[in-house]
Design a protein that fits this description.
The protein is of the alpha/beta class and 652 residues long. The longest helix is centred in the C-terminal third of the chain and has 20 residues, at 466-485. The termini are far apart.
């Protein structure tokens, strides 16, 4: 059967990109030089142009040229040519010829723009629209998340591979995915240096930050020839499980604001994503925040100025989120045992400003994994080929006594405890916790804190970490569930640390060796946080004792109402950290915490008829006497493990 010849028709100006019309496909190409571009048409899958059609001369501002072409879009692909330069449409909705990750094209004809031709059935898809305070964010790299042989999925390194892992993520307690660049980006970039005789002409851009085709899902992350459909399936599957999907975008300075805003709106409407994390210049975040789109979708940036924050009513749900290293740096120092950071740590535990949500993380894609944070004092980036000069030197890490992997039981147990402590910081602070994929089972990058150029087992998550990996994973599951079951840990507004309800207790108060008093002296590394459940419609009290000193510390316990008692529910020194049966402490006035440990006590109603006579002398006391902190050591407190190792550079 002879194919009907394509017909071509000139057309009026439009925005850059392609769009379908009743009479054909409308192309719009911007020429920076003003030189008339040429449309190259290829039969689908071919790298040889079948037709070359010049655009019509235009007098429109911005040198925008347009053309209406009558062709079946499912049978064709396209590129543009200006002078001798052949290039792919930066506004293309789909990219052909890049199915293999980091494969260098043989010619500019190898990579082409393609068309979205399939009508997708969203089947009544509804966005979860989670509140930030109810979210547990999880950052992952699409390829690295499931590429390893032991990932347990069939479609490794793809959007479908993530979909196969959704039951695991749901069980972990994650309800918000944050994808590193999943649009079509350039994997091969010019080399950083050519000092070595055998230096490569290009370097690998594994992470994906930098320029790219921002409107097209990445073809190499798809298990089929239809990445747009596979990505939509992932979004729909996430939403069915109550999981949101946020996308990271990194727009270089040369990308104009109009293109950026059009890109965000396109992904929100075409792919139903729930929000964006912008790693770009501050002006981009400010302008994006003004879009009506972000009245109910989430926008995460490095910071937001006060005028932008104020557009969110105090009574409304926050849509803006701040994701920067402030929480990470302060809490890493505290975890390490540094002095003079107790006040900053207390601030991070309560920080929850109006108009903008704080995103709290201990690790990010850029830096040490959590396992490496407690295993290395120094970065080990020689494999990057930059003489170990790349990557930050300010890691605030501590190797727990041995640099790198160790089989010493005291070292492995201490590292386990430190990682549990880190999760306590993230999950029990007032902001939104962000977990780095793989940290929950001990994934390591061998001390490399900047593996941007590695597509290998170094950056692919290692899912086989044995018993210790399972211990930490179970801890994270229970810690996430504990956060979700206690509204005082995720309040809508920042705790005022005042008794605003006249109930005798502030919503959050800090304590030390004396109740109601915290000594922020530079030598102190322990603090107790008391949460009053009445401020979050929760029964009882929570007391979280953080001890980051290398010696055991005593914490004074505030006096509870006469019908309540203390029960210990968690201790990071124990293998089964969340106790299956709470340990009753009665109405003790103090508790001791082992070195480098976190313990949680709950103040609950007394459920049995014991010690009523002993309680009688408390009945006449009013709540003003709650500051009596001349307590004694809890007699029922079990002996805890001790570790007196001091990291180098720490105030002893």
């Amino acid at each position: 059967m002879t194919e009907k010849k394509a017909e071509y028709q000139r057309s009026a100006p439009l925005f850059p990109g392609v769009s379908s019309e009743r009479t054909g496909i409308r192309f719009a190409c911007c020429s920076e030089t003003g030189e008339t571009p040429v449309l190259l048409l290829y039969k689908k899958g071919s790298s040889v142009p079948e037709r070359e059609i010049p655009f019509e001369t235009t007098e429109e501002p911005g040198h925008l040229f347009t053309l209406l072409v009558k062709i079946p879009p499912s049978a064709y692909e396209y590129n543009y040519k200006i002078g001798d330069r052949i290039f792919t449409d930066p506004y293309a909705r789909k990219i052909a010829g890049k199915r293999k990750f980091a494969e260098k094209p043989a010619s500019p004809h190898e990579v082409r723009g393609a068309f979205l031709t399939k009508k997708y059935d969203w089947e009544g898809d509804v966005r979860p629209k989670l509140s930030y305070r109810d979210a547990v964010m999880y950052q992952l790299h699409v390829r690295g998340f499931t590429k390893q042989k032991n990932s347990g999925v069939r479609h490794k390194g793809t959007f479908l591979g993530i979909q196969e892992k959704l039951p695991y993520l749901k069980e972990l307690g994650v309800n918000q995915l944050r994808l590193m660049p999943a649009y079509e980006f350039e994997e091969l970039l010019p080399a950083v240096s050519s000092q070595n005789a055998k230096a490569e002409e290009v370097r690998l851009n594994y992470w994906g930050y930098g320029n790219g085709f921002f409107f097209a899902p990445k073809a190499a992350y798809s298990s089929s020839a239809y990445p747009e459909e596979e990505f939509k399936n992932l979004v729909k599957a996430c939403h069915r499980l109550g999981i949101e999907l946020l996308m990271e975008f990194s727009f270089p300075d040369e990308v104009d604001m109009g293109k950026i805003l059009s890109c965000l709106e396109f992904w929100a409407r075409e792919y139903h994503v729930d929000g964006f994390c912008l790693l770009s210049r501050p002006q981009v975040v400010e302008e994006a925040a003004k879009l009506p789109l972000f009245q109910d979708l989430k926008l995460v940036g490095g910071w937001f100025p006060e005028p932008v924050r104020q557009r969110i009513p105090v009574s409304g749900e926050k849509t803006l989120g701040e994701s920067n290293d402030g929480f990470m740096n302060d809490c890493r120092r505290m975890l390490k045992g540094d002095g003079q950071c107790l006040r900053e740590f207390a601030f991070r535990m309560k920080n929850n400003p109006p108009g903008c949500q704080e995103i709290n993380y201990m690790t990010n894609h850029d830096g040490f994994t959590l396992m490496d944070l407690v295993s290395y004092d120094q970065k080990h980036n020689l494999e990057n080929g930059e003489q170990n000069r790349d990557g930050t030197d300010g890691n605030f890490s501590w190797n727990c006594g041995v640099e790198g992997p160790s089989r010493k039981k005291e070292v492995t147990r201490l590292r386990m405890r430190q990682r549990k402590n880190a999760y306590c910081m993230m999950l029990f602070a007032q902001g939104t916790p962000m977990l780095l994929a793989g940290d929950e089972f001990g994934n390591s990058q061998n001390g490399n804190n900047n593996p941007y150029c590695h597509d290998s087992s170094l950056t692919w998550l290692d899912w086989g970490n044995g018993r210790l990996g399972k211990e930490l994973t179970e801890f994270v599951k229970k810690a996430v569930a504990f956060r979700k079951s206690h509204p005082v840990l995720r309040q809508k507004t920042e705790p005022a640390s005042m008794d605003t309800r006249s109930c005798g207790y502030p919503n959050l108060s800090f304590h030390g060796e004396q109740a109601w008093y915290t000594d922020y002296d530079c030598g102190n590394r322990h603090i107790g946080c008391l949460y009053c459940g009445e401020y979050a419609k929760e029964d009882g009290f929570l007391y979280i004792a953080y001890n980051f000193h290398w010696t055991e510390q005593k914490f004074a316990l505030p006096l509870l109402p006469s019908d309540m008692e203390w029960r210990k529910v968690m201790d990071t020194t124990l293998e089964e950290s969340f106790l299956s049966e709470p340990a009753a402490l009665g109405r003790e006035k103090s508790v001791e915490a082992a070195p480098r440990s976190v313990i949680i006590l709950e103040g609950k109603k007394i459920e049995h008829e014991t010690s009523k006579n002993a309680e009688a002398n408390h009945l006449g006391k009013d709540k003003g006497a709650l500051q009596d902190h001349n307590g004694t050591q809890a007699s029922g407190n079990e002996a805890l493990l001790s570790d007196r190792t001091v990291p180098s550079g720490t105030d002893a």
